[in-house]
Design brief:
Elements lengths: L1 H38 L5 H7 L3 E9 L3 E9 H7 L9 E3 H18 E4 L8 E7 L7 E3 L7 E9 L6 E6 L10 E9 L2 E2 L4 E4 L3 E5 L12 H14 L10 E6 L3 E9 H7 L9 E2 L1 H18 L2 E3 L2 E3 L2 E8 L4 H4 L7 E2 L4 E9 L6 E5 L10 E7 L5 E5 L5 E5 L16 E2 L7 H17 L6 H8 L7 H12 L1 E2 L5 E2 L1 E12 L7 E16 L2 E18 L2 E21 L6
Parallel strand pairs: 1-9, 13-22
Antiparallel strand pairs: 1-2, 2-7, 3-6, 4-8, 5-7, 8-12, 9-10, 9-11, 13-14, 14-20, 15-19, 16-17, 16-21, 18-20, 21-24, 22-23, 25-31, 26-27, 28-29, 29-30, 30-31
């Protein structure tokens, strides 16, 4: 067990060091490029200094009940680049000059490190200590400026326990030519919550804190991974608050592309007008909706069975940090630009069952150099696909097997044998009819649904029942999306009068389990109904002649990921 833990720790450390070396090399090459441009006169020394072209820092953000303590390590290289510190004839930067620069760097650190609470308000901090003890006499050699660091201790007082903290940094400055990067590790009450995460200038890292069950120190790396997996489950698969998510659904009736994009990323693609740079008011969200919809409608071509299909914007929502916003239809409210996400659902209706789908994504920027999409093919387990600038298309073809393309089960007639049914037989007849009613709504078009519904319903009731059932299947929590019926269960049934060979009345209680799948989550709802049925024999078939609903109530609702077992 210990050997396995050591092996896992070694592997994670090795991968982290490898990733860091790769990023460091890229940044160093960019830095050398900037020096070449400077020497050629393409960049001026003034613009280079103001841009603060390179920054590699490490931070530990420790969240307590009444404060946030931050430890920030800044390389001496940053001090050399940002301040007029010159090396002597031995290529050594004097210790006194570096310590003076480290003290001057305090204001830069306070300005460049940003912490936001769950309301998007910036926390006010102060530097409580500067540790420059690693700068030894007589100074730091040119070859060591990437190894020696200065540590800054910062404190941000809070009036209450924070449910979320968003960390960002602008150490590169707004005019940065080259990216600044900060490794950030978040703790709660000094307990590590996850492995360090890199934050580029302009990006954010948001962490949620549970104060009802504060964390305890993990015993090993395996337990830390298990906790991360459990947190991912609680967050419904949304691992990063600043990540771009794509969900591509292939269903019998449509292809659906659902996209969750951080507001900061979206603002790079299509600027969103607002009065305050930090927040977006509800009225501003409403004004931006049409522009955002038009942007996605024109940039995501999809063809089904060889025919190009124009998308229909089913939903466009502005989400905050609360993960319940994805499970419920949250009310519009002011959102923080640094923390909010936009969710858009594009539906591509299909005239026939999809057998071939080609979807393209050619929208990339510095925050979204690629798009990772989770593809849901009918009811199969999800698969991953990456859209890249050189490979912007995803193509799917049906294998024609029942598993990949399930057939819709058409309602069947319920035959009458010309004899008076018993109460038990009447229960079975009623169960078959009501199941046929719900099965009719598996069909996509109104004409097809009416045709299937006519197998179980007669006369004026056809139109009435169509409207009633259709309304009952809409999930208000999911923006009015129509749920898919998974099961219809008989609870009880009893005669409501004397039956004959051609008619009977019954008081019938049943439950309907329906689900809607959005953002990779399955929202399942169970309702119980009580109604009085009038059933008649028409041309040798039992059909519903009249239905009077007496009561209805919700008996269950849950949200889970596909593949997770229902509670």
């Amino acid at each position: 067990m210990v050997k396995r833990d050591n092996h896992e720790r070694h592997e994670m450390t090795r991968k982290t060091k490898h990733d860091f070396r790769v990023i460091s090399c890229l940044l160093w090459l960019n830095y050398l490029r900037a020096l070449i441009l400077l020497s050629c006169g393409i960049l001026t020394s003034e613009s280079s200094v103001l841009a603060h072209p390179i920054s590699l820092t490490e931070s530990v953000v420790n969240v307590h009940r009444d404060r946030v303590d931050v430890e920030l390590k800044v390389l001496v290289e940053d001090l050399v680049l940002y301040y007029p510190v010159s090396a002597d004839e031995h290529d050594v930067y004097p210790a006194d000059a570096l310590r003076k620069a480290a003290h001057s760097h305090r204001e830069f650190v306070l300005d460049g490190l940003n912490l936001l609470d769950e309301q998007g308000r910036r926390l006010v901090g102060e530097i409580t200590a500067v540790d420059a003890s690693r700068i030894l006499e007589p100074g730091v050699a040119q070859t060591e400026i990437k190894q020696v660091s200065v540590t800054y201790a910062l404190r941000f007082l809070t009036k209450e326990k924070l449910g979320f903290v968003t960390v960002s940094q602008t150490f590169g400055g707004e005019q940065a030519i080259l990216p600044a990067m900060m490794d950030c590790q978040v703790k709660q009450l000094s307990v590590v919550l996850d492995v360090p995460q890199p934050i580029l200038s302009g990006q954010t890292l948001t962490t949620r804190f549970d104060w009802s069950k504060p964390p305890t120190p993990p015993k090993n790396w395996r337990e830390l991974k298990q906790r991360r997996a459990e947190r991912l489950k609680q967050q419904l698969g949304i691992a990063s608050y600043s990540g771009l998510y794509s969900f591509l659904y292939i269903t019998p009736q449509e292809v659906r592309h659902e996209i969750l994009v951080p507001l900061l990323t979206l603002d790079e693609w299509t600027p969103i007008a607002r009065k305050k740079s930090e927040f977006l008011e509800v009225s501003e969200q409403q004004a931006a909706t049409a522009r955002i919809a038009a942007f996605f409608e024109s940039g995501n071509p999809v063809s089904i069975n060889g025919v190009a299909v124009k998308p229909v914007v089913d939903r466009l929502n502005f989400f905050g940090l609360d993960i319940r916003d994805f499970a419920l239809n949250a009310e519009p409210r002011r959102v923080s630009i640094a923390q909010a996400r936009v969710g858009i659902i594009l539906s591509y209706p299909s005239t026939g069952r999809p057998t071939n789908v080609v979807a393209k994504w050619d929208t990339f920027n510095k925050y979204a150099p690629f798009l990772k999409s989770v593809v849901y093919e009918f009811d199969k387990a999800p698969i991953e696909h990456f859209f890249r600038p050189g490979e912007p298309a995803f193509e799917w073809s049906s294998s024609g097997t029942p598993q990949s393309q399930p057939e819709q089960a058409a309602p069947t007639s319920v035959k009458s044998d010309g004899r008076t049914p018993t109460e038990a037989q009447a229960e079975l007849i009623s169960a078959a009819l009501i199941k046929n009613v719900y099965r009719a709504f598996d069909f996509h078009g109104e004409h097809e649904t009416y045709g299937a519904l006519a197998m179980a319903v007669e006369g004026p009731l056809l139109r009435t029942l169509y409207l009633q059932i259709r309304k009952s299947l809409l999930m208000a929590e999911q923006g009015g999306s129509r749920s898919r019926v998974l099961d219809v269960k008989l609870v009880s049934g009893s005669f409501a009068g004397e039956p004959t060979e051609s008619a009977f009345d019954m008081e019938y209680r049943w439950r309907v389990v329906g689900s809607v799948e959005h953002w990779g989550h399955i929202h399942t709802r169970e309702h119980e109904y009580l109604a009085r049925f009038s059933v008649r024999s028409v041309a040798g078939q039992w059909k519903l002649h009249a239905v009077k609903f007496l009561s209805q109530k919700r008996v269950g609702f849950e949200t889970r990921l596909r593949g997770q077992k229902a509670d």
